Amino acid sequence: MTDKPMDPQAAPRSLPVGSRSDDLELAQRVIQPIPPDSVPVMEAVNISKGFGATTALVDVSLKAYQGRILALLGDNGAGKSTLIKILSGVFPPDQGELRFQGEPVRFANPGEARQRGVATVFQDLAVCELLSVTRNIVLGREPQKGVGPFKFLDLKRADTMARSALHKLGVRWERGLDERGINISGGERQSLAIARAMFFGSALLILDEPTSALAVRQAGRVLEHIAKARDDGQAVILITHNFRHALSVADDLTVLAQGRVAGHFRRDEIELDDLTDLVARVA
Ligand SMILES: Nc1ncnc2c1ncn2[C@@H]1O[C@H](COP(=O)(O)OP(=O)(O)OP(=O)(O)O)[C@@H](O)[C@H]1O
């Protein structure tokens, strides 16, 4: 098995149709139907957004459910980043509504979205480079000891929490927990960020291109961790333009093209060739 890097700029339709990457299986899992009465953790309803003369999103709707991975797919410029910025409180939509756990919601900022249980891992900001592995995992909820104003980090408890978070995700961390973020690989960074979201029980985990800059083997490991977060009960939105990665873990797929929804599918309704054709047709 080689650890060759993938081309992060590769457009999905440049993938050789029907070929297989080294270690990613487009597994034919049994996909459960969504129970008719279940309420999405996050629902976007007819969202539109423009930037001056540029129309980024037109009437886009999607639903992300607990215990399911929704892959949000689309070519460069399709509107994926704009949509997740709206879902995670970076800016509001011009039109349309977000519903979080059934209730209309308007996040004032990303901090508010985070407090409500929306954990977003942006590609380049997965970890703080100057903080240790432990500090990265407990970030924002550091256990403290001491009395009155003399409080400081309870490092022993923090290490225990970090170890437990990594264990829950199935990460075998063989180096020190005091390793700085700057010294760990891209794949490990994504996995740490997933561990943090899982450990603090976010309801929705949004991952922005978590595998795009990774070598094949690392990408496979990160996809396993994403599947684990789903199996742990989180709703996951996975943004990618790698169809293989999406098909290997997703339960549901939403395809964007030129700011509009080109289709919603359940994983067992669509194959790689169909996705490739669809994007080639609408791009
Ligand atoms: N801040 C902004 N100002 C002006 N135009 C923007 C801004 N952000 C996005 N756009 C435009 O909106 C459209 C959608 O961009 P967006 O980044 O959401 O697409 P994307 O699917 O995430 O693409 P990529 O995969 O290349 O990141 C593009 O035409 C883009 O140029």
Automatic annotation (TrEMBL):
InterPro entries: AAA+_ATPase, ABC_carbohydrate_import_ATPase, ABC_transporter-like_ATP-bd, P-loop_NTPase. Keywords: ATP-binding, Nucleotide-binding. Pfam families: ABC_tran (PF00005). This is Monosaccharide ABC transporter ATP-binding protein, CUT2 family. It comes from the Bacteria. One of its GO terms (molecular function) is ATP binding. The lineage of its organism: Bacteria, Pseudomonadati, Pseudomonadota, Alphaproteobacteria, Hyphomicrobiales. It comes from Bauldia litoralis. Residues 42-283 form the ABC transporter domain.
